[in-house]
C-alpha cells in the first residue's frame, strides 16, 4: 500500500496520478470531469492536483496509509559483543539506514542492541514491540529476518500487520560466516541453558533423596528409654 510519506511533491499532474492509480491518464481526466477527483487549473489551463487533495482521494479509496504521527525505525542486532567490537553492528546500521533513506523515511530512528536471536526478552526489541502496539511505528527496516528473531518471525509479522506497521527486509541474503557464527553461539546458549536447568533439577532431586534417606535412618535408630 502507498504511504503518505511517499508523496513528496506539492502538486501532481494527471499522468502522475494515473501512474499511482494504475489507470490511463484519460481515465483520470474523466474522474476530474465527473467531480470524483478535485483538480485545479494552472494559469495555462493545465490540470494539477495538490498533495492534500490527492491524499484525501486516495484515503477515501483505501489506497494510502496515512502517517498519523508515526515514525520509521531501523532495527539492527548482533549476537555477541565481539561482533559489535569489530564493527558488524555499525555496518549493519549503515546499510539499512542507506536503504531506508531511499524510501522517504518519516523521522527515522535507529534502534540497535547486542543479544541472541533466540532471546525473546531483549530490552530494545520489547520496547519496539510496545511502540508498535501503541501505533507509533510506521515501518521497521531490518537487514534480514533473523535480526528481529531467530524463530517466530511470523508471529511478529502478524502483530505488525494488525497494527498497520510494515516490516521492510533489506536483503534476503546473509553473510554465511556471520550466520554460522551466530548459529553456533545460539546453539551453545541453548545447551548452556538446558544444562543449567538439568543440573538444577538433579541437585533438587538429590537433596530430596538425601532428606528421605536421612529421615529413614533417623527412624531406624534405637530410641533412648
| Radius of gyration over all CA atoms, rounded | 29 Å
CATH-defined fold name of the largest domain: Rossmann fold
Strand content: 15-25%
In total, the number of strands is 9
Structural class: alpha/beta
CATH superfamily of the largest domain: Resolvase, N-terminal catalytic domain
Query: What is the helix fraction of residues, given as a range?
Result: 40-55%
Give a short account of the largest sheet. Answer: 4 strands, parallel
Number of folding domains? 2
Identify the CATH architecture of the largest domain: 3-Layer(aba) Sandwich
- Shape annotation: elongated
Helix segment tally = 8
Low-confidence stretches: none
What is the CATH class designation of the largest domain?
Answer: Alpha Beta
> How far apart, in Å, are the first and last alpha carbons?
90 Å
Provide mean pLDDT, rounded: 83
Strand order of the largest sheet: 7-6-8-9
Q: SSE order in H/E notation?
A: EEHHEEHEEHHEHEHEH
